[in-house]
UniProtKB/TrEMBL annotation:
This is ABC transporter ATP-binding protein. InterPro entries: AAA+_ATPase, ABC_transporter-like_ATP-bd, ABC_transporter-like_CS, P-loop_NTPase. Residues 302-358 are annotated as: Disordered. It holds the Pfam family ABC_tran. Belongs to the ABC transporter superfamily. It comes from the Bacteria. It comes from Amycolatopsis minnesotensis. GO terms for molecular function: ATP binding. Residues 9-234 form the ABC transporter domain.
Length: 358
């Protein structure tokens, strides 16, 4: 069947329920060719389920996931459009790497010589005649990637590809994926660790509890990092009151007894404290790194957010009622970017993981 050849992945209002478990809830995002997109979320966020729906392995409860404007079953010979490596894919342990690839090459109708080519692409030529059962985890991942590449696909979907790779392997994979994307192809890489893929990806889709939390460029996410000031006052209650009276309301107690103030400069805080007669014993500016931000965006899946000042006091005024764990994160508000940046205006998409094209 014809498809539009765009290389675009589109996920639109995708949901999947397993009995009472809402694994994926109304996810929408798009992944464009020419860049590496990270598909990020904590364990159990719904990444694998989303990727499996994209790859035609799980039927959505509602919504649709397409590649080139088509669902997986409409792609004709899918291995020539999308190569994937999903978790826990096995190889016949006694078969050599080359023979494994030849079997798959025959299955998708590509010539035998392609098996040798892809072994070279993933740096496994010297192990071509070794049994896959004797491979290390890193080598098995390379072999899975080689399998995914057999059909020379326009789209590559990898589930947690860095698992089992040594540092050298991670650098190699990073360079490989970036070069692949530079050829105008689409690369979607899932991970539960932002730090693991931060240097590889340009775009990012962040999900938590089956819902989209952020979707856009990594650069934009970086620029939006919120800084805060950690203040050690003589009287926390008085300082909080004074700041709130001056319209500064993003205040949280820290575990070490300080007050974390967002949305105000050191100078503003100092001036307000001084006018209120509150002595300050120290102020420290803290800039959230990307990993902290990722955690903030996704932590609602398992734990209640940090307590905040300002709402009906509890526990001596140190704990306002947090938003519930399943709510969209409130921090920072502009990160709930359901509106993608320019070039990402299409409704929904998602991607997959390490899935050797079977
Ligand atoms: N076949 C299934 N039957 C029942 N529940 C399932 C099934 N597959 C996934 N789930 C549930 O759906 C939710 C999302 O799981 P999923 O594997 O998609 O998350 P994930 O983000 O890929 O997590 P991880 O990083 O741990 O692989 C989890 O609560 C999981 O237990």
């Amino acid at each position: 069947m014809q498809h539009d050849g765009s290389g675009r992945i589109a996920v639109q209002n995708l949901s999947k329920h397993f009995g009472p478990v809402a694994a994926v809830q109304n996810l929408s995002f798009t992944v464009e060719p020419g860049s590496v997109t990270g598909f990020l979320g904590p364990n159990g966020a719904g990444k694998t389920t989303t990727l499996r729906m994209l790859l035609g392995l799980v039927t959505p409860s509602s919504g649709v996931a397409t590649i080139n404007g088509r669902t997986h079953d409409q792609l004709g010979n899918p291995a020539t459009v999308v190569g994937s490596v999903l978790e826990n894919e096995g190889f016949h342990p006694k078969r050599s790497a080359l023979n494994h690839l030849r079997v798959y090459a025959a299955a998708i109708g590509v010539p035998d010589r392609r098996a040798e080519e892809v072994l070279g692409l993933v740096g496994l030529s010297s192990a071509a005649h070794r049994r896959a059962g004797d491979f290390s985890l890193g080598m098995r991942q390379r072999l899975a990637l080689a399998t995914a590449l057999l059909g020379n696909p326009q789209v590559l979907v990898l589930d947690e590809p860095a698992n089992g790779l040594d540092p050298e392997g991670i650098v190699w994979l990073r360079n490989f994926l970036r070069a692949y994307a530079r050829e105008g192809r689409t690369v979607l890489v899932s991970s539960h660790l932002l730090s693991e893929v931060e240097q590889t990806i340009d775009q990012v889709v962040i999900i938590s509890a089956g819902m989209t939390r952020y979707f856009g460029s990594l650069e934009q996410l970086r620029q939006g990092q919120r800084s805060r000031v950690l203040v050690q006052p003589s009287d926390a209650g008085e300082l909080v009151k004074a700041l709130q009276e001056n319209g500064i309301t993003q205040l949280e107690p820290t575990q070490d007894g300080r007050v974390a103030v967002s949305g105000a400069t050191v100078q503003q805080i100092g001036d307000i404290a001084s006018k209120a007669g509150v002595a300050l014993y120290g102020m420290q500016e803290e800039r959230a790194d990307l990993e902290q931000l990722f955690f903030q965006l996704t932590q609602g899946q398992y734990s209640a957010p940090q307590p905040q000042y300002g709402q009906p006091p509890q526990q001596g005024g140190w704990g306002g009622p947090p938003s519930g764990p399943q709510q969209q994160q409130q921090y920072p508000p502009n990160y709930q970017q359901q509106q993608p940046p320019p070039g990402h205006q299409q409704p929904g998409q998602q991607g997959g993981g390490w899935g050797g094209q079977g």
